[in-house]
Every structure is written in structure tokens, then in C-alpha cells.
Amino acid sequence: MSENEKALPKEIKQYLKKGEEAFRRRNYDYAIELFSHALLLDVKLADTRNFLHLTKIKKFRENPPSFFSYGANKVKAQTYMLNAKKLEVRGRLNEALEEYEKALNFDPLNAKIFIKQAAVFLKLEMKEAALKTYQEGLSMDENNLEALKKLGMLYKDKKELNRSQNYYVSAGQLSPDDADVQKGLKDLAALKTIERDGWADQDTFRSKIRDIEEASKLEKETKMAKSDEDIDYLIQNLKEKLKGDPENTAMLFRLADYYKAKELFDEADVIYKKILTFKPNNEVALRNIENLKIKKIEKELSRLKQNQADDPENRAFTQKIDELERCKNNIHFERIKESVAKLPSDMSLRYNYGLLLKERRMFNEAISQFQESAKDPGRKISSLNMLGLCFKEKNMLDLAAAQFKKALSMAPEISDKTKYIIYNLGCTYEKMEQFSEAINEFKKIYEVDINYKDVSQKIEQTYRNKE
User: Fold this and answer.
1) 197: buried, middle or exposed (CB in 10 Å: 19+, 13-18, 0-12)?
2) pTM (2 decimals)?
3) Contact, 161 vs 195, CB < 8 A?
4) Is the dihedral of CA 242, 246, 249, 252 positive or negative?
5) Are 422 and 409 in contact, with CB atoms under 8 Å apart?
6) Which residue in 74, 193, 317, 384 has a CA-CA distance of 20 to 30 Å to 421?
7) Where are the domains of the chain?
8) What does 201-214 look like in DSSP terms, one character per residue?
9) Fold of 374-466
10) Residues 6 or more apart in contact with residue 427 via CB below 8 angstroms
């Protein structure tokens, strides 16, 4: 029980104690009920909210829903999120908080829900609850720029300047030109100098800085280390810091990124693999290792193509280039394939894997992935379209047309996405030699976008044939 126990009413203490006991016994539903009761009595209990979220996540991970339930849960969560947004607009913030909490009951691994709920906590000036909730969102999406910036701000307000700086620097690596990040780093540079030299009541600080080396370091970090000299300096600085804190993954990520900026890919690879010893399934590290392999291949390809240009008759260069191109394509393919095996309920991964399979003309395998990703309401229309294209390539035209029509039934409004599906349906009818049905589909596009693909030629040719 991390809240200040002395300050808590007896009734809340009892709920928290029983909730923790239920959690330890893995009676997650009862723990959720108890933590929720405590929050009804005092909405500002940040640690209790954190326990509640942890319990929901634990329950989901230990008892994941079926594919069918997963899709239905996503829809329910979206409904609660929409309700919460409407309540926010009306200024009913406490009610909005509870709607976001209900959304988490159905989709507790969705970073967006945590980020939106944290923003409401900020509006209510509940900074500790906001901080913990942003951290929860970041644990689901380590590249969430909004969470990184807000955590930088919140830790700056708490005067925990080093932690604040880590978050701002991580945000800057994602978006180097972000104005909030640049301002946050500059403010931190000033605050660190003021804190160290003890002249917070002075009007200026630059003329007062006595430690030139420290000022230089802060300036280099604020500039996001754009020069080689700055990067070398920051690499050495981080290596020194890591001697005292070797498992600090935030600093390790920064060090790896600096190595990448210097095109020291082998050194960066070593750092990312070190991160995996602390966080074995860290998607960011795994993705960066994959990207490094690709970058090394691209660097070698660039060298070989230059040599090929100088000696075009040398077939050895052509063969090596083809080999490296195949290797480059295989790296990403194998990475996605492994990820799908590890996370079969991640419909985004299944959809992307399906696209790669389709590119390789492995249509049966692609169909299997798209049939799964179609269970996710957010990807259903795109998945149905891809199923249609796969069936069309297999010359199973009636099945292809059925998928396109099913997708269009779910998106009656004309948009860029539906124009693409209508076009695919029209081309399928053409291949089936059902030309009147094909023209009817192409007309739907022609009426709103005369320049779409070759639709105008198809329509105008039909009218010329009637003359």
C-alpha cells in the first residue's frame, strides 16, 4: 500500500488491503472491484489507480480473449472512448475519467486510452495521477511522443531534472524539430545551472556560468547533437554515466542512436542487444537491430553500385547486388514472421505480414493472415479488400467480388479508400466479362473523381462504343 496510510480513511485502507490480497491470489476481478471502490471514495489516489491498471493488464495477459472477443472488446473500448471525449468537451472531466477507465476494462493494452486519460488528469491538476498514467501508456508504446513530452514536463515540475531530461531527449530523437522539446531542454539547461550555482533570484544566467564544460554539454544536448563533434562528446559523456548506471535503458537507447548517427552500426548493434538482456521482448530494440542490418546492407549496396557504374561489364557486381537485395527483403519478412508467431493476437502484425506474403505471391498464406486481421474492426475493410485482391490473383473471381462488396457495405461513403475498392470490384467484373456491372462501378468513381486511375478512359470508351 504505497499511498500515505496515515492520511487515508479506514474504509479506503480496507479496500486497498483486500485488493492487494486479491491481486496476490490472482483473483483479478475482485481486486479490480476493490480498487475501483477505493477510487470512488477518493479519485486522487494515484497509486491505487496504478494498482487498478496493473490488475487489468495482468488479467488480460494471463487470460487473453479469443479472436472473436478481441474484436468485440475493441469496439466496446472505442465506444467508451468516444463517450469520454464528448464528456471532456462538455467539461465533465470526472465523468470522462470513468469512461476511459471503462474502456481499459476491454482494451487494457491500448496506449491511446492511457494517454487520453492522463491528459484529463492534467486538466484536473492531478499531476501525480497524470504522471503514472503517462508512464503506463509509455510502457505500451515506447515511441509515444506525447507521453515522452508530458513526462519531461511533469518531472521538470517535480524538480527531478535528470529524469526530465531523459524523457525530453528521447522525445527529441523521435521529433528533433518539436518546439515543446526544444523549449523543455533549454529550460532544463537553465534550471540545472540555477540549481547548481544558487542564484535563482538573478535576471540572467549565461554570464554567471562558471562551469564551462557543463554548459557546453547542456548546449550540445539542447541542439540534439547535430555535429559530429557534439555526437562524439555526448557518446563519451553517456559512457561515463553508464558506468554508474549500466542498466539505464533510456541512456542506452540514446547511446545507440548516437552511434547510428555516426554510422557506427556494429557499435549500435551491441548496445541494442545489451538492452535486450534487460528487456528481452523490447520491440523498439528488436526493430532497431533489424534496421541496422538493413542499413549495413544499404551501405554495401551503395558501394557496389558505384563500383558497378565504374565497371559495368563485371557480372560479379550484379550478382552480389542481387544477393544483397534479396537478403535485405528477407530480413524484414523474417522479423514480421517471428513477431506474428510471438503475438498472434496482434492484428496489425498479421495484416502487415499478409501484405508481405501477398508481395511474394504467397496468396494462400496471405489469405490466412487477412482472414484473421479482418476480425479487428479497425482493419476489417482493408483486410477484406486485400482478401479480394488475393482471390482475384488466384482467379477465384466470384470470391474476390464478394469480398470487395462486403468491404463496401461497411463504408458506404465515397473516400480514397472506397474508390480503390470500387475500382478493384470493377476490374474484377471486367475479368469476369460482366462489362455492364464493371461500368456501373467505374461510374461511381467517375461522378466524384474524373482523374482517378484510368476510369475516365474506361467510361468514355464505353460511350464511344455506343455511338
Assistant:
1) middle
2) 0.46
3) yes
4) positive
5) no
6) 74
7) 225-275, 374-466
8) TSS--GGG---HHH
9) 1.25.40
10) 392, 438
